[in-house]
Write a structure and sequence with these properties.
There is one protein chain. About 30% of the residues lie in helices and about 30% in strands. The protein has 13 helices and 19 strands.
Length: about 400
């Protein structure tokens, strides 16, 4: 039996494990966490970092690998590319698109080359250089790792007092120790989850993106379709097509975060040439009837792409979270929640007795909730009711969870 390697073993990679097995492949999971969810899903599991392609290849030896994939993870994309080269699998992400995914400063350069709305930024690995750049940029500004995803290492600053700590926090979450400072852009937050086939934008979902407050500003919910003017959709389509053409991305998934400013500018924040995280493929499947996980796996396998939208429904994805570190003691209202007609999927990743973390980065989520409805108003009312129904009882841990 041929092998599918999935780098990462978190909740956003699990659908790829299941899709690979459904398609008849032996799935090898790789994650440095010994308790990763993927361990129970894999036919073979390597407990090691997903960023060491040579080490992974040595551990596996000369096996028959059909494809390598890592949904929702920027950190593993360079390893995906190298393992695909080592095992001579059919698909490779374009070099420019890969670099945009792992280097936020390079993505800003692409935006500048295309003449798209931009904002001021600076990127470096030297603390003194970053301190001088922050003084030039002014405040408020965002400090974050240049090569990380999942909102790890992000701080929003209103003044210079906490800059040293914010830089160090970002450096600790950066594999390259590169930190990027960005002017804070005010406006409506949105996201694009799209798929290219033969150089054509075959699918694009645009969401209203709800985020937590400062200092982290992490994704909390997505609602589709975004309540945007048709002219904004047209500009998004044009810009996404132009960006992908510029970086050579002709095949496969790609996602963007953006801000629509009060003046009407579309400012692209980040790009990932891979399946989106935070349950985005789950929402796309319920809202559009499109299995992007299957499409991404088939692309990695070198099979022809079929991108068919069979539904167009108003949908919401809500990330379930904890407000503080502690021990989960009970989950109440789950059965009642599942009986709600608008609730089409609810997934809880933690069980009573598990340590949970406050939602300060995407990896600390407790689960996903997906709802569909006939109207936006009905959807929002149902989401409010669902969140009142589902309750996580957590015993606070004054020392923090481990």
């Amino acid at each position: 039996m041929r092998n599918l390697i999935v780098l990462g073993g978190g909740e956003d990679q699990i659908p790829a494990y299941r899709e690979g097995r459904r398609l008849g492949y032996r799935v090898i999971g790789v994650d440095q966490r010994p308790d990763a969810l993927g361990k129970a899903e894999a036919d073979e599991f390597l407990c090691m970092t997903s960023r060491d392609p040579d080490g992974i290849a040595r551990a596996l030896g000369p096996i028959d690998v059909a494809a390598v994939i890592s949904p929702a993870s920027d950190a593993a994309q360079e390893a995906v590319a190298e393992l695909s080269r080592i095992y001579r699998t059919p698909h490779q992400t374009a070099a420019g698109a890969l670099r945009c995914t792992v280097d936020k400063g390079y993505f800003r350069q692409v935006i500048d080359r295309l003449g798209l709305p931009a904002y001021r930024y600076a990127q470096a690995d030297d603390v003194e250089e970053l301190t001088r750049a922050a003084a030039d940029l002014g405040y408020p500004l965002i400090v974050k790792p240049a090569d990380s995803s999942g909102s790890k290492g992000i701080t929003v600053l209103d003044g210079p007092a906490d800059l040293p700590g914010a830089i160090e926090h970002a450096r600790k979450n950066s594999f390259s120790r590169q930190v990027i400072l960005e002017e804070l852009i005010e406006g409506r937050h949105g996201a694009v989850e799209s798929f290219f086939a033969d150089g054509r934008l075959a699918f694009m979902a645009v969401t209203d993106r709800v985020i937590t407050g400062r200092p982290a500003m992490i994704s909390l919910a997505h609602i589709v379709p975004a309540a945007l003017d048709p002219s904004v959709y047209a500009r998004l389509t044009e810009a996404v097509t132009a960006i992908c053409a510029e970086v050579g991305h002709r095949q496969g998934p790609v996602n963007f975060d953006f801000v629509l400013t009060p003046g009407g500018d579309l400012c692209f924040i980040e790009m990932g040439a891979r399946l989106g995280g935070n349950g985005m493929p789950l929402m796309v499947r319920h809202a559009f009837g499109l299995n992007t996980v299957e499409a991404a796996v088939r692309l990695a396998l070198g099979e022809p792409l079929t991108i068919d939208v069979t539904l167009r429904r108003t949908a919401a994805l809500r990330i379930l979270t904890a407000e503080a570190d502690g021990v989960l003691t009970d989950v109440e209202g789950l059965d009642e929640l599942r009986r709600m007609p608008e609730v089409v999927d609810v997934q809880v990743f933690k069980a009573p007795g598990d340590h949970v973390r406050a939602y300060t980065q995407a990896g600390h989520k407790l689960g996903y909730l997906v709802l569909v409805a006939d109207t936006r108003e009905q959807l929002e009312e149902s989401l409010d009711r669902a969140l009142r129904t589902l309750r996580f009882e957590i015993e606070p841990d004054a020392k923090g969870s481990t």
